[in-house]
Structures are given as structure tokens and as C-alpha cells.
Amino acid sequence: MSHSSHQVANTNGRSPQSALWTQSTSASAEAVIEGDSDVVVAVMGATGSGKTTFINEASASDLRIGRGLKSCTSVVQVAEPFVLEGRTVTLIDTPGFDDTTRSDADILRMIGLFLAATYQNGKKLAGVIYIHRISDFRMGGISTRNFKMFRELCGDSTLKNVAIVTNMWGQVSQDVGEAREAELASEDIFFQPVLQKGAIMLRHEHTQESAHLILRHIIENHPLTLQIQRELVDQKKDISQTAAGAELNRELMLQIQKHEKEMKQLQEEMKEAINSKDEEYRRELEIETKKLQAEMNRVQSDAEKLMSEYSQDKARMEQRMSELTEQARRDQERAAEEHNRELLSLRKQLKDTSSSSSSERARLEARLEELQRTRAKSSGGFFAKLGRAIDSIFGIH
Fold first, then answer.
1. What is the largest CA-CA distance in the chain?
2. How far apart are CA 90 and CA 69, in angstroms?
3. Closest to 227 in 3D by CA, of 325, 158, 315, 330
4. What angle is formed at CA 157 by the lines to CA 156 and CA 162, rounded to 5 degrees?
5. Which of 7, 231, 274, 345 falls 20 to 30 Å from 215 in CA-CA distance?
6. CA nearest 81: which of 90, 68, 69?
7. The pTM is what?
């Protein structure tokens, strides 16, 4: 498939390769996922990178978009399914690990729950898109950390189904953008290692056409199991034992060590201020000490939450999913009853209107034929229920 280079640039020229999908053993998978999309793509990246905008452009959805410094996607959002190349596509919007309202531990638990439930219920991820702003002057600490977590979530064996998508090209000159793109693709500390293992790098031009060109690279993929899905479901690990959890815990421990050194330095300066009777400086140090202690408490809490809360979250989510599935079953039964009532009513009207006008009979027959072709389906489907379950767990209504 060839695409114009100004809209989509594939920097390594490799097409996605086949791989086997490891089926989950969920006995109720068929009943749960019936009628859902046949192509599911997760979209990841740093806060403010344009994930939600990309999804809205691709799917004509209106998911919430953050403005300014405060992130909006602090939950997993699911776009309305849409049809592309005869396939029904669902895009999953995930929060970044630098979220302004939730800790990294919360974000990892949320994404882990979503991906584990997806895999356990037999749903296939055709691919993962990682969004990066080409307008960023450099790939700083936050972007590097987000991408590191992204790699640990995916694992190397799934990189052939990964697309790194650069956006915000309108905010830089073509020369600057292309130079940054070349650097990102060729440097070991950036995207080169994943591109060498089968990922592709594409450009997004902020149009639906451009988004659909990107998705065409993904929708024919043979789905693969992400590393965190294998770890949580097949290997039955706690989230703190996964590669992503271990990476996050390592970073939290480094933060704690750094803060402990800073606290020791502040305490030494406090002694000097007391000895020299410098009250103004002592008060300033007290304020700084309180701030640092609060930050240390937050980081310590994140580390403890990562260790202790995933299994509780999982049990609550499974209970909520069970409730929502039962509600959907009842709703479907009611819809089926209404469907059947309308069928019976139309048949009776046709029988009673044998002498009516031909146009009225034609209208009734057309409606009857339409009803016979279709059957009542439950609203929402698996992803709608899963999104609502995770929202309720993390106190989002």
C-alpha cells in the first residue's frame, strides 16, 4: 500500500508481520463480546501529546480534551466504533503517566486493569499507537519516562504492531520537523530500538484522512498479546511484579532516595541557621522541609498503593462487570420483547389491511422485512461496560 509522503512517512519501511493470538480461557467470552468491534487499537502517550484529538479526528467522536496544563484524560476513554475499510474499529484513549490529577501508580493500575480484562475476555488489540509531539524542542524527562513505561507495557514481541505517530507538525517548520524526526528515528535513547524491532513511525497531519491512513497500517495486523497482559493474566502476577510495575517502583525508589538526601541537607542547614540565630532563614527552611516531607509522603504512598491495591481493584472491577453484564442481559431481553411485539403487531396490521391501499401495504411490508433482517442487540458492548466499571472503581462518574 503506498501513501503520499507528506501525510504518512514510514521511516523503516517494514510492514506488520503475522503472529498468533493467544486465546484466553474465559468461558463467557463469546457472550460478553458479541457484536463488538473486530479491530481494537489503544492510543498512548504523554499528557497533552494529542491522543484524544487524534481519536476524535479518526472516529468523529467528542471525547473530552484537556486544555492548558491540566490533563483531561485521567481515565480510560472508549470512542464510538466506526467503519474503516469494511472493518469496525474501536479506539481506546489512555491517560499518560504524567497525569496532573492521578499518580503514576493509579494510572498503571487503571491501564493494567483495562488491558487484563480485555485479554481475559478474548478481545484482541490489533495494535498500539504511541503519540509524540514533533513540536517538542527535545525529548525531555517526562516524554522519556512515558515511552519507557510504554515499552514495558508492550514488551518487545509486540513491537511489530506498534505505530509511533508524530503530530503537531503545523507548529514547526518542515526542516526543523524533519530534522527532529530523523534524530528520533536514529538515536538509541529515543525510538531507534523499537523501530529496529518492527515498529513503524508515521506522521499525523490533524485530518481524518491522515488518521485513517495511519489506521490502515494497523487494521490488517494479526493481534498480539501485550507483555503486561501475559504477566497479569497468564502468569497471574500482581501489577507490582510486572515489568512496568518494576520500572515504576524503581523510579519511585530513586525519587525517595533523592528526597532523603535533600532532607538530610535541609536538616544540616537548619542546624546552622539555629546556631547562627538566623530566624528568617530558619523559617524558610521549615517551609521547605514541610514541602519536601509532603512530597516524600506522596511518593511513599504511591509505592505502597502499587504493591497493595491492584488485587482489590480487580475484584471490584469483576463484580462491577458482572453487574453491568447482567443489566445488559436484562436490557437485551426487554429490547427483544419489544422487537417481537412490533413484529406481531405489523403482521396483524398486514392481515387486517388486505383491502387497504397498496402504498400502505408496501410501507408495512418494508418495515416488517427490515425488522426480520435485524434483531435487538444490547447497547454498548464489552468496552462500554469495561469503561464504566473502571470509572466506578476510581471514583469517576
1. 109
2. 28
3. 158
4. 75
5. 231
6. 90
7. 0.71
- Coil/strand/helix, residue 245: helix
Single-letter amino acid code for the residue at 140: G
CA 194, CA 187: separation in Å to the nearest integer? 11
* pLDDT tens by residue, 248-294: 888 888 888 888 999 999 888 888 888 888 888 888 888 999 998 88
Residue 320: how many CB atoms within 10 A of its CB? 18
Query: What pairs with residue 130 in β-bridges?
Result: 44, 164
The CA distance from 218 to 39, in Å, is 9
Mapping DSSP to helix (H, G, I), strand (E, B) and coil, where does residue 190 land? coil
93, 76 contact by CB (below 8 A) = yes
Which residues partner with 163 through β-bridges?
129, 200
Summarize pLDDT for 5-17 with one digit per residue, the tens.
344 444 443 333 2
Q: What is the pLDDT of residues 178-232, one digit of tens each?
A: 999 999 999 888 899 999 999 999 999 999 999 999 999 998 888 889 999 999 9
Strand 162-167 with 82-84, pairing: unpaired
Residue 125 · residue 40 · CB < 8 Å = yes
- One-letter amino acid at 248 equals L
